[in-house]
């Protein structure tokens, strides 16, 4: 599970994703204390500092389309968005893990938002 400061920030700023968080008391959560570490990963104590950290399978579930083939085509297109720029999506947006990549794909696919390094913004 990605518990890097960047993924925590990406998840925290993804309000559209946070409202989808499961209500059960187990899972991948972070009791965020505002520094570079995560405490109580996997334990839910409900208060304002809880950030849901979606796993890769949960992110993939969010963008299920009618067919696996269409999901693959959309993901492949997303990966190739920056081919004219000669940089891949991960380096262009400073993504370092598969969870970060999939969160970026979900945000682009569902909400037309891209990560600018500090927040999600509407893609032009």
Describe this structure in words.
There is one protein chain. The protein is built from six helices and five strands, in the order ααβββααααββ. It is of the alpha+beta class and 124 residues long. It has one domain (5-122). The protein has a three-stranded antiparallel beta sheet with strand order 2-1-3, with helices on one face. The protein has a two-stranded antiparallel sheet with strand order 4-5. β1 and β2 form a beta hairpin. α3 (56-62) packs parallel to α6 (98-111). The longest helix has 14 residues, at 98-111. It is globular, with a radius of gyration of 15 Å. The protein starts with a helix and ends with a strand. The model is unreliable at 43-47 (pLDDT under 50).
- C-alpha-based Rg, rounded: 15 Å
Number of E-type strands: 5
Tell me the count of domains.
1
Spatial ordering of strands, largest sheet: 2-1-3
Largest sheet: 3 strands, antiparallel
Average pLDDT, to the nearest integer? 78
Oligomer: single chain
Overall morphology: globular
Number of H- or I-type helical stretches: 6
Helix content: 40-55%
Elements, N to C (H/E): HHEEEHHHHEE
Strand content: 5-15%
Write the layout of secondary structure elements.
Elements: H1 5-13, H2 15-18, E1 29-32, E2 38-39, E3 50-52, H3 56-62, H4 68-79, H5 89-92, H6 98-111, E4 113-115, E5 120-122
Antiparallel strand pairs: 1-2, 1-3, 4-5
Helix pairs in contact: 3-6
Q: What tags apply to this protein structure?
A:
124 residues, alpha+beta
């Amino acid at each position: 599970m990605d518990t890097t400061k960047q993924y925590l920030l990406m998840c925290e700023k993804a309000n559209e994703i946070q409202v989808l968080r499961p209500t059960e008391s187990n899972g991948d959560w972070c009791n965020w204390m505002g520094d570079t570490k995560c405490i109580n990963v996997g334990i839910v104590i409900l208060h304002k500092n809880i950030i849901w950290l979606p796993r890769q399978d949960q992110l993939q579930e969010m963008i299920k389309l009618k067919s696996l083939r269409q999901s693959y085509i959309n993901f492949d297109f997303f990966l190739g968005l920056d081919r004219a720029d000669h940089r891949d999506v991960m380096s262009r947006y400073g993504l370092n893990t598969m969870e970060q990549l999939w969160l970026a794909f979900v945000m682009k696919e569902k909400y037309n938002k891209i990560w600018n390094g500090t927040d999600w913004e509407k893609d032009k």
